């Protein structure tokens, strides 16, 4: 409660500083072929109501049968969150009426979830800090269908394709203190889910969405009353919703008012949150154990087996990249953010200088891909091609400057870097005779500069530039420097 507060995270109000407190409930669609309690397909984008079994439509007499794959994915996610795995958990009915919920209840886990407490380590780019966000729980539940109100002037439609699809609800403790931290947390969580292959993290399709709980308090004081912003479906909007909501609450409190606990919606068009329902209107879900489902039980050996086959996760990969390749925490963090870029890096770095490989990927390749709006998986320059470019520099065949031209050629035209260097005469001139000849000509043409350089050795740079120009940038920089110093009599 009295942990030191970073003043940069505080919001200045008219009456003093305020601290934001955020906790999130993330809904992540489980990657599986079939739904949580039926064999219907989870494929996205089918014709309305084409992926609906009798169970999903809640026909009388239908019974749910749990999909083992969804259970496996929830356990694997729990392991990835370094969380307690509960060998026994139960399913409950959460009762409410809505046209897109044919059962009249959602099957969820209430009192005893499949996964308990865990944690996520988060690097926050804006502050350079690393924070630990504690996970409260992860439970399995069904998704609802979708109401469509804008296809007909007087009627609404219901599409049940999503009905019954498995979701993992991942609940954090109220450990986040700024919009930056909240965005970084969701980004990191999504990275972990993608590494595990348990959720594709596609927020545009609604496969990952967040309920964002926001309150404000005076630094060090008790938590304030929170408002919950429902179903925010982009990382940018999560940040915007928090900033707006915190300022709204501060304005009310500074005006002598109190915060009412309520559910709100974020409107990205207006950049504001709006009340959806107050605490009084909150649903009474009348939770009770689902009589159609036995408790979910498995043994520790099953969990251990899943743990053994977990892929290397981003935190471990980052630590390994730092230890094995000498990368900075920042560079390692950037590379492991996506599994594809981490794999690309390792392919380039194998048997080469890791730092050089990281530099080329982060500074040149990422920049160039960004410009084209391309993903690393669609990179026109392969790991083998980039490796060859780095080798050519290492062997002294081309200079670093020419290497950038070569990279651009490979990026736009493709081809074998070695052949391109050969064919287009891009080789560095290491033949000292040829360099000397070029230097001699420049010295002869610029006697005044030669005099100045003797008094002011920094003018050497001017001669380097002239010789590079004369040799089309191909003079070996080291050889050139030595020759120039000798000829100009500079030590
Ligand atoms: P409920 O069961 O009513 O949804 P929980 O206690 O499970 O409430 O909390 C739901 C989410 O709200 C969690 O992510 C939690 O971290 C967050 N939360 C709880 N209290 C606060 C608070 N005062 N300010 C911000 N977030 C909070
Ligand atoms: Mg909740």
Write the layout of secondary structure elements.
Elements: E1 11-13, E2 16-29, H1 68-80, E3 88-89, E4 92-95, E5 105-108, E6 118-124, E7 129-142, E8 146-148, E9 157-159, E10 166-172, H2 179-196, E11 208-217, E12 227-232, H3 235-254, E13 262-267, E14 272-278, E15 288-289, E16 296-297, H4 300-308, H5 314-325, H6 329-336, H7 339-349, H8 354-372, H9 383-394, H10 400-413, H11 417-423, H12 432-445, H13 447-455, H14 460-470, H15 477-488
Helix pairs in contact: 2-3, 5-6, 7-8, 7-9, 9-10, 12-14, 12-15, 14-15
The chain binds adenosine-5'-diphosphate (ADP) and magnesium ion (MG).
Organism: Microvirga arsenatis
Catalytic activity: L-glutamyl-tRNA(Gln) + L-glutamine + ATP + H2O = L-glutaminyl-tRNA(Gln) + L-glutamate + ADP + phosphate + H(+); L-aspartyl-tRNA(Asn) + L-glutamine + ATP + H2O = L-asparaginyl-tRNA(Asn) + L-glutamate + ADP + phosphate + 2 H(+)
EC number: 6.3.5.-
Any descriptors?
single chain, 491 residues, alpha+beta, Arc Repressor Mutant, subunit A, 3 domains, nine-stranded mixed beta sheet, three-stranded antiparallel beta sheet, 15 helices, binds adenosine-5'-diphosphate, binds magnesium ion, nucleotide-binding, protein biosynthesis, ligase, Gln-tRNA_amidoTrfase_suB_CS, ATP-binding
Structure description:
The relative contact order is 0.09. α3 (235-254) links the parallel β12 and β13 (262-267). Strands 1, 2, 6, 7, 10, 11, 12, 13 and 14 form a nine-stranded mixed sheet that branches. Strands 5-4-15 form a three-stranded antiparallel sheet, with no helix packed on it. The chain has a two-stranded antiparallel ribbon with strand order 3-16. The protein has three domains: 10-306, no CATH class; 339-423, no CATH class; 432-488, Arc Repressor Mutant, subunit A (Orthogonal Bundle). The mean pLDDT is 94. It contains 15 helices and 16 strands. The N and C termini lie far apart (63 Å). The chain is 38% helix and 19% strand. It has 491 residues and is of the alpha+beta class. Adenosine-5'-diphosphate is lined by residues 21-25, 171-174, 213-215, 223, 226.
């Amino acid at each position: 409660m009295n942990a030191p507060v970073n003043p940069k995270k505080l919001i200045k109000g008219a009456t003093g500083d305020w601290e934001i407190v955020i906790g999130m409930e993330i809904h992540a669609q489980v990657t599986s072929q079939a739904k949580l309690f039926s064999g219907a397909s989870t494929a996205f984008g089918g014709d309305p109501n084409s992926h609906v079994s009798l169970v999903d439509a809640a026909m009388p007499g239908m019974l749910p049968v749990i999909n083992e794959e969804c259970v496996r994915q929830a356990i694997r996610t729990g392991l990835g969150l370094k969380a307690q795995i509960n060998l026994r958990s139960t399913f409950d009915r959460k009762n409410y009426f809505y046209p897109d919920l044919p059962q009249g209840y959602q099957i969820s886990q209430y009192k005893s979830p499949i996964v308990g407490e865990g944690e996520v380590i988060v690097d926050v780019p804006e502050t350079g800090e690393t924070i630990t966000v504690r996970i409260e729980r992860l439970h399995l539940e069904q998704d609802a269908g979708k109401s469509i109100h804008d296809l007909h002037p007087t009627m609404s439609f219901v599409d049940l394709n999503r009905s019954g699809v498995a979701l993992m609800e991942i609940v954090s403790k109220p450990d986040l203190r700024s919009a930056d931290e909240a965005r970084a947390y969701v980004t990191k969580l999504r990275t972990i889910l993608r590494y595990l292959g348990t959720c594709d993290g596609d927020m545009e399709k609604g496969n990952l969405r967040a309920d964002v709980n926001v309150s404000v308090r005076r630094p060090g004081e008790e938590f304030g009353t929170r408002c919950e912003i429902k179903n925010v479906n982009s990382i940018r909007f999560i940040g915007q919703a928090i900033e707006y909501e915190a300022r709204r609450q501060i304005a009310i409190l500074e005006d002598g008012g109190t915060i009412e606990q309520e559910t709100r919606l974020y409107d990205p068009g207006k950049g504001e949150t709006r009340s959806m329902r107050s605490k009084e209107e909150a649903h009474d879900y009348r939770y009770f154990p689902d009589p159609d489902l036995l408790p979910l039980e498995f043994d520790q050996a099953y969990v251990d087996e899943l743990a053994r086959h977990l892929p290397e996760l981003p935190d471990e990969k980052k630590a390994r990249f730092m230890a094995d390749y000498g990368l900075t925490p920042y560079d390692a963090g950037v590379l492991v953010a996506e599994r594809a870029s981490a794999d690309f890096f390792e392919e380039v770095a194998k048997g080469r200088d890791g730092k050089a490989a990281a530099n080329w990927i982060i500074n040149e390749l990422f920049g160039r891909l960004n410009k084209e709006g391309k993903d690393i998986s669609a990179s026109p320059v392969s790991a083998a091609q980039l490796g060859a470019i780095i080798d050519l520099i290492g062997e002294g065949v081309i200079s670093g400057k020419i290497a950038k031209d070569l990279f651009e050629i490979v990026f736009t035209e493709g081809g074998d870097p070695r052949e391109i260097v050969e064919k287009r005469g891009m080789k560095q001139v290491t033949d000292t005779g040829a360099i000397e000849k070029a230097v001699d000509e420049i010295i002869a043409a610029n006697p005044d500069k030669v005099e100045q350089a003797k008094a002011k050795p920094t003018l050497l740079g001017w001669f380097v530039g002239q010789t590079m120009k004369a040799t089309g940038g191909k003079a070996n920089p080291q050889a050139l420097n030595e020759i120039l110093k000798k000829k100009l009599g500079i030590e």
